[in-house]
């Protein structure tokens, strides 16, 4: 199998014909993978390192692009609540079934809101959010569309965009096959996990994209398990 190039294959979860129950099962498995393989923790750590509450008036606002069933936002809400931080969250996803599920699963989290929206079309008041997250979502886009996704994230972001996505690698592929045989119950998540790795990135590719945004500070770090966390920091954050 060749890992030299990103493959152009649609994931099952992106198909409009997928039944809501199958989608829910796939998100449950993605959430379990994020918990067990450090996906949530990697974003939490990167976000915590960027958090600057000095001079912050009002709540910290976090936007999650491609939020799925909201697993990441619930994880962050629990952790930041323990730190007594005042945070408001908005999750966006193109998939209406995902947003219905996210609302259902987040009933105990009044600080989290959700909207159906296509990232490519999303517009909001400039710099409305302090931090913008994009986890396991960038690889859903083509090479041509990725710069637009980053620009949209930057336009609504005051401080930093945090992208967390997979490394395209043979080792990651076979490790995930092994992991999914034990921990992943849904056929959709098993298939899409493997397709995702083949659609994902090498560090040098993310670095090349970052050169298009010279007015922002970039840091791309490898994290277990076979992920990159790319922090895109606004060099001139506007005061809150
Ligand atoms: C693999 S899931 C990741 C979900 C979540 N961020 C996580 O880490 O568990 C990718 C999500 O991106 C969403 N997505 C794909 N293309 C999108 C677009 N153009 N606009 C908004 N969401 C999109 C999908 O519907 C899906 O929920």
Description:
With 240 residues, the protein is α/β, with parallel strands linked by helices. It has a single domain (12-234), classed as Rossmann fold, CATH 3.40.50. The protein has helices at residues 20-36, 39-50, 71-82, 96-105, 146-155, 170-183, 187-199, 203-210; strands spanning 60-65, 87-93, 112-116, 129-135, 157-166, 216-223, 227-234. Strands 3-2-1-4-5-7-6 form a seven-stranded mixed β-sheet, sandwiched between helices. A hairpin with a 3-residue loop joins strand 6 and strand 7. Helix 1 packs across helix 7 (187-199) and helix 6 (170-183) runs antiparallel to helix 7 (187-199). It is globular. The model has no long low-confidence stretch (mean pLDDT 95). The structure holds S-adenosylmethionine. S-adenosylmethionine is lined by residues 30, 34, 66-68, 71-72, 92-95, 98, 118-120, 135-137, 140.
Count the DSSP helices. Answer: 8
Order of helices and strands: HHEHEHEEHEHHHEE
Range of strand content: 15-25%
- What is the topology, as strand order, of the major beta sheet? 3-2-1-4-5-7-6
Distance between the termini: 49 Å
So what's the CATH class?
A: Alpha Beta
- The CATH topology label is Rossmann fold
The domain tally reads 1
Shape: globular
The overall average pLDDT, rounded, is: 95
Q: Describe the main β-sheet briefly.
A: 7 strands, mixed
Query: How does the helix and strand content classify structurally?
Result: alpha/beta
In CATH terms, the superfamily is Vaccinia Virus protein VP39
Helix share bin? 40-55%
Q: Catalogue the unreliable spans.
A: none
Any ligands, ions or cofactors bound here, and which? S-adenosylmethionine
**What is the gyration radius calculated from CA atoms?**
17 Å
- The CATH level-2 architecture is identified as 3-Layer(aba) Sandwich
Total number of strands: 7
